[in-house]
Amino acid sequence: MNPTRLMAMLLSLQRLPAELDTRTQQEQPGAAVIDPGGWLTRTCTVVFARGGRTSVKVNKFHRGTGELRANFHGESDTGMDYARRLRQSRTTMAREGIDLLAIPPGDDLRYLVGFSTVADERPSYLFITADAALFLVPELNAQQASAHIHDPMLTYGDSEGPAKALTAGRQRLGARHRIGVGDTMRADALLLLQHQWRDAQFVPASIVLAPLRMRKSAEEIEALRRAAATADTAVQAAWRACRPGVTEADIAAAVDAGFRTAGAAEVKSASVGSGPNSAFPHHHTGTRRAQAGEPVLFDLGSRVDGYCSDITRMAFLGEPPARYRDVHRAVEAAVQNALAVIRPGVPINEVDLAARRTIEQAGYGPNFVHRTGHGIGITEHEPPSVTQANALPLEEGMAFSVEPGIYLPGEFGVRLEEIVVVTAQGAEVLSRLPREVKVTG
């Protein structure tokens, strides 16, 4: 299920029954308590400081500066303006009537502070209000987190669980009316928050963060360019590896090596589809051997300085037949026509329509089965979505993919993907590689 849809379903559970109150367990020993993750009824003590004075003695409270401030070391220092992001987030929170953000580990956390704890079954949250911030993490992650973030920090141990640490956090943060939660938050972590703030309305934090993340700064765009350069190197490695008899996994291994050579910090698993497998838009790389006289599709990406690349190219093993060239030509024309309409102020759906009409006019409309593109940044797939339904006007600094495709089941598929940045002059294409038919083998 789509994470955003799952989050919407969970947010519909605005209140939990009174039986969930930990006071029930304290006042009525042995009472049945719904216990997501086994955390609610365990004991936890936190040293809770406020204004330099210890006001509640409940286990460990790491006292920080009281103001959200990332402290970077080594590779984490990418030159991003995290203070500006925080100011913008708080401005948007005020406009949307959101008085608390609860951000789990993941890309939203990286966007705000340049660092993320491990996302696992132990709940972690960054809480942001109009004038304060609080970080709640498992004790085993506290040392790593404190090396990056100098902010008030609540911790809890595995044997105790986060329930009372969360209670201490709620006491510090106070009553809240509208809470924005990160789209990737686990269900059990969300239930714990709903237990603490029973009268609050819970909404997606993307209301605040998605508009900010869609508009890239100059530093972010430069990071996207560096990531795209590593992808170009990896595509060239894939082209060199494409020859009759090699497996899809062999080509994926060449892609991985190409990324590493180019300096990519993280590499996503390449999707390599040979022959009829290229007709599956989301093919999982397998052990099929590429044969002479058929195409190979590879969709690949990396992360450099926290920002992603994503590119799709084709290879053909031997001389392509006329049918393949016809399909490839139609997809290339769809890319060109989509790029031509990109400029500030144009509705995003015009980009999708330009690509889709081109493919329809070529006679392959039913074989273009997905949207034309997706946003890219810290996350490989993020807003904006380039669909027929999205009329959001393009703005300078938006970055997204343009990736039309034609898929002929049982035969082959062709997809060509570019990452573009919207500029005052139009679309800046980040890849430097051609999209023409690449004959290999």
TrEMBL record:
Q: Which Pfam families match?
A: Creatinase_N, Peptidase_M24
UniProt superkingdom: Bacteria
- Residue span of the signal peptide, if any? none
Q: Where is the Creatinase N-terminal domain?
A: 85-214
Among the GO molecular function terms of this UniProt record, one is: aminopeptidase activity
Q: Which InterPro entries match?
A: Creatin/AminoP/Spt16_N (IPR029149), Creatinase/aminopeptidase-like (IPR036005), Creatinase_N (IPR000587), Pept_M24 (IPR000994), Peptidase_M24B (IPR050659), Peptidase_M24B_aminopep-P_CS (IPR001131)
Region (Disordered) residue ranges read 270-290
Q: Could you tell me the keywords of this UniProt record?
A: Aminopeptidase, Hydrolase, Metal-binding, Protease
UniProt domain Peptidase M24: residue ranges: 222-424
> What SUPFAM superfamilies is this protein classified in?
Creatinase/aminopeptidase, Creatinase/prolidase N-terminal domain
What the record says about family reads: Belongs to the peptidase M24B family.
- Can you name this protein? Aminopeptidase P family protein
